[in-house]
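Question: Now follow the chain.
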Amino acid sequence: MIKQVKWGIIGCGNVTEKKSGPAFNQVEGSSLQAVMRRDLNLVQDYAERHHVPQWTNNADSLIHNDEVNAIYIATPPGLHAEYAIKAMKTGKPVYVEKPMAATYEQCEEMLRVSKETGMLIFVAYYRRSLPGFLKVKELIEDDIIGRVLYVNMRLTRPATKDEVSGNPWRLKKDLAGGGIFYDLASHQLDYLDFLFGPVVEANGIVSNRSGLYDVEDTISASLRYENGVIANGLWSFVTSIDAKEDVMEVIGSKGKIVFSAFAHTPIYLHINGEVIEFPYLNPDHIQYNLINQLVNTIMGKGTCISTGESAARTNKVMEQIVYKK
């Protein structure tokens, strides 16, 4: 049994600066031992700023480092399967950024190796552990809004500068799995899986309305969950600023809950003609709560709420929506 989880990070980019990286040294029983990035100057700079003892520009070197016993993979999704499988085969549990992989087939292979090696795999769907999103779940489970009937969600925004004139990895199908939908909507879809269980039917219509890049930029989807709840979603990443929205609505027989997926604005409970407000109350490092869970799980003292099994379901749903698989 692991008594101290000593992490190595593969891909210490922007997401690790604030959201995740510092939390590995703050959770009891956890420490950040080594980091990897292909650019040696950048990885050395990261290590020095975050007080990490070791750094390298070679992923295999980090995976086989005897002073590292768990691996966090924060590369683009298209590389997740390769590194996760290598790490698990060396006897190390893995924590993978979302989405779990670029394809559902890659997710299945990661789960197969996890079962084969006995190594745990977790995915960074941290909304499952944040107070605001847990409040929404609590309100639903306490029957405050009655029987849940349906969910509406809308996520729309203008294209960013790098999406217009650059070539970011999030717009490369082989690296990202799809377009911005794969990057952002995966959080929303995983959270609905957390609330309602697996999707049993998914249908989508996708389009590239702007011609700015090769992958989809506008998506409509209808979902049915195993408990009978129906969800509808609309995503567009090429609108004007006037059409910008980030709204999720859970409508029940006695009221509704309205909240954002990314803006972290308050949660609004509409009940009996009144509106009650609840704050989000996020930790300083937004992945802290989930990292705390998975560290305890690795040490045999708890259960993490975001697993490879649950995360793979989200990849499957996204493929059903975008690629009709």
The domain at 131-281 is CATH 3.30.360.10 (Dihydrodipicolinate Reductase; domain 2). The mean pLDDT is 97. The first helix runs from residue 14 to 17. The chain is about 35% helix and 25% strand.
